[in-house]
Write a structure and sequence with these properties.
Blueprint: E1 8-11, H1 13-19, H2 27-39, E2 44-49, H3 62-68, E3 76-80, H4 84-90, E4 101-107, H5 110-117, H6 121-137, E5 141-147, E6 151-152, E7 156-157, H7 160-172, E8 177-182, H8 189-200, E9 208-212, H9 219-228, E10 233-236, H10 256-265, H11 274-288, H12 295-305
The structure holds 3-hydroxy-3-methylglutaryl-coenzyme A and magnesium ion.
Length: 306
């Protein structure tokens, strides 16, 4: 078994973490969160979404948030863009304010595709086609997310062949990297392994990442299984915040703090300062007036208090 020496964490808290919040989180708070995350050493931050504000009101301040961040050169800022309208909005301002990467998101289940983005899987790919072309023309990187890669809130178990099919469709339109997403957190290590293997039939190991919601408490086990397979890129969310408004009952992504703690304990480098990360999690948890979902943050708070 050869584990990676380095793991790249893509922090999705400002986007996936906050998109489902009922209370409006002001742009200043989102910006401060991004500042604290980058101060903790995160170099990949998914900041916001250019989606319909009627569908996801919390992300309506996308342009203000992107404009308010004091950027660091080493950080890559990404945003979700489901269609050309979203992409054009993301690059409407001067180049310094563009995202360096956009994310197009499809589903491995038809029902979820309809609920989340109001179209079939094939239609979603046709919407992404001009988005990918426009991004490439502007030298913006393109990542794809494959939602419900293990299970769907409407259809139940999802076959790995569905993941391969979506990966093939994404690859054919020029998507450079795919994230295998367990949107509702039902996966267990062998199921997740199969979903990852399905993506690896199309993309190389350096172009596949894991995105695991932790609804059933399996996300760290699933992450470990992926590490053993050589996967070295994962999306995680500060304080374990998050969920998708169109995946009822799904909780947040695996907490960044918990993944970083696990990796540190395994001697795997992330470049992240766990203490500063805990502070970033404390900041957003205090704002939301909710205890953190990170087990590591809870344990370290108790230790600090003692
Ligand atoms: P639609 O209604 O089919 O779109 O929605 P449409 O093209 O027919 O347009 C209808 C209205 O939406 C129009 O406005 C458009 O201007 C507007 P109106 O004339 O009615 O006032 N519109 C937009 N506004 C702003 N930005 C845009 C945009 N596009 C259209 N880009 C659409 C299709 C995709 C827009 C809609 O379904 C939508 O916004 N869905 C939200 C999806 C979403 O954000 N889900 C959560 C993120 S995905 C996720 O969390 C999963 C992930 O974490 C991985 C995992 O865990 O699985 C990534
Ligand atoms: Mg997600």
């Amino acid at each position: 078994m050869s584990l990676p020496n380095y793991v790249k964490i893509v922090e999705v808290g400002p986007r996936d973490g906050l998109q489902n919040e009922k209370q409006t989180v002001p742009a200043e708070v989102k910006i401060e969160l991004v500042h604290r995350l980058q101060a903790a050493g995160l170099t990949e931050i998914e900041v916001t979404s250019y989606v319909s504000p009627k569908w996801v009101p919390q992300m309506a301040d996308n342009t203000a948030v992107m404009a308010g961040i004091k950027r660091k050169n080493i950080v890559r800022y990404s945003v979700l863009t489901p269609n050309l309208q979203g992409f054009n909005a993301a690059v409407a301002s001067e180049k310094e304010l563009w995202p360096q990467e956009i994310v197009v998101f499809a589903a491995a289940s038809e029902a979820f595709s309809q609920k989340n983005i109001n179209c079939s899987i094939e239609e979603s790919i046709e919407r992404f086609r001009p988005v990918v072309a426009a991004a490439k023309e502007k030298h913006v990187s393109v990542r794809g997310a494959i939602s419900c890669a293990v299970g769907c809130p409407y259809e139940g178990d999802v076959a790995p062949s569905q993941v391969t099919k979506v990966a093939e469709l994404m690859h054919a339109i020029g998507v450079e990297h795919v994230g295998v997403a367990d949107t509702i957190g039902v996966g267990t290590p062998i199921k997740v392994q199969r979903a990852i293997q399905a993506a690896l039939q199309v993309y190389g190991i350096n172009e596949v990442s894991g995105h695991f919601h932790d609804t059933y408490g399996q996300a760290l086990s699933n992450t470990l299984r992926c590490l053993e397979m050589g996967v070295w890129q994962f999306d995680t969310s500060i304080a374990g915040l998050g969920g998708c408004p169109y995946a009822k009952g799904a909780t947040g992504n695996v907490a960044t703090e918990d993944v970083v703690y696990m990796l540190q304990g395994m001697g795997i480098d992330t470049g992240i300062d766990l203490d500063k990360l805990i502070d970033a999690g404390q900041y957003i948890s205090d704002y939301l007036q909710r205890p953190t979902n990170s087990r590591v943050a809870k344990a370290l708070f108790s230790k600090r208090a003692a």
